[in-house]
Design goal:
By secondary structure, this protein is α/β, with parallel strands linked by helices. It is built from ten helices and ten strands. It has a ten-stranded mixed β-sheet, sandwiched between helices. It is elongated and about 65 Å long.
């Protein structure tokens, strides 16, 4: 699988790389590292130097890319890299397209409270404009055990693509996988209580059977790829159930399909420690 890793050398980029190296299969993943010499990158360097220097910023961007490539090679990955000048999200998407990337990996610092509320960060822009799956990492996986992965499978084409993207880069020996399918609760009745419906959703046995079939289909694809998989089916509101299960079971990565803004994938993207948003 061809993977594009975007890094600026900061701590959030290091966390994203840590997820990739802990979970990725070096035998099947080819990584291209990209550092964007953006205005923000140059100004952050200017704060360290005490003056603004475009030449210094360009050299530092290339240094970050070179050092990241060296680190990936030390971890047994095939890696190349380079730097470009421009807007971060625009250049990440352009280079990903040009290089035929099948997955983009980015970190997300969430350094400002506004970034958790309003779209506009580099990672959000990339997720919502990318034509390929995107892995966004907020926090490192807990401990040194295999990464716990939760895959939200709903049987859709987008969900299948998310499963395929995960299976394409992850090493079955480096993770444990749970496939979760949610049988959606019915719409709220006029004047009804949201809490009551979400807590005791009226889902039929047939709807639960359909959900089980979807979960088993996704699990079967992963088992064929060598993963050991558990399946779970639950009734409720998809975003709430996925996030609750991820939190309660301390999953380090949540995999879901992309949908429109404000959807399940958007809520997972903002809340989960790491999210793979499939296309």
């Amino acid at each position: 699988m061809k993977v594009l890793v975007a890094t600026d050398g900061g701590r959030h980029s290091e966390i994203a790389l840590e997820m990739l190296t802990r979970l990725g299969d070096p035998g099947r993943v080819e990584v291209h590292v990209l550092t964007v010499d953006s205005f923000t990158f140059a100004m952050e360097l200017a704060e360290q130097l005490g003056h603004y220097s475009p030449e210094a910023a360009a050299a530092d961007a290339q240094r970050v890319a070179d050092e990241t490539v060296a680190g990936l090679k030390a971890a047994a990955f095939t890696a190349t890299g380079g730097s470009v000048e421009g807007d971060e999200a625009t250049e990440i998407l352009r280079v990903a397209t040009e290089r035929g990337a099948e997955l983009i990996v980015v970190g997300s610092a969430k350094e400002r409270w506004l970034d958790t509320v309003v779209l506009g960060s580099v990672s959000s822009s990339v997720v919502h404009a990318s034509s390929c799956p995107v892995l966004v990492v907020h926090r490192s996986p807990d401990g040194d055990q295999p990464v716990k992965v939760l895959i939200g499978a709903d049987g859709s084409e987008g969900s299948q693509h998310a499963v395929e993207a995960f299976a394409g880069f992850a090493d079955p020996l480096r993770c444990t996988v749970e496939v979760l399918t949610v049988a959606p609760a019915p719409p709220l009745p006029p004047g009804g209580s949201a809490g009551a419906v979400l807590d005791t959703p009226d889902v039929t046995d047939r709807e639960l059977d359909v959900a089980r079939t979807k979960a088993q289909d996704a699990a079967g694809h992963l088992r064929d790829a060598g993963f050991t998989v558990e399946t779970t089916v639950m009734p409720g509101a998809p975003a709430r159930v996925i996030l609750d299960v991820a939190s309660e079971s301390r999953h380090g990565l949540v995999v879901v399909r992309a949908k429109v803004l404000g959807s399940v994938s958007d809520r997972v993207l903002r809340t989960a420690p790491a999210s793979l948003i499939g296309r």
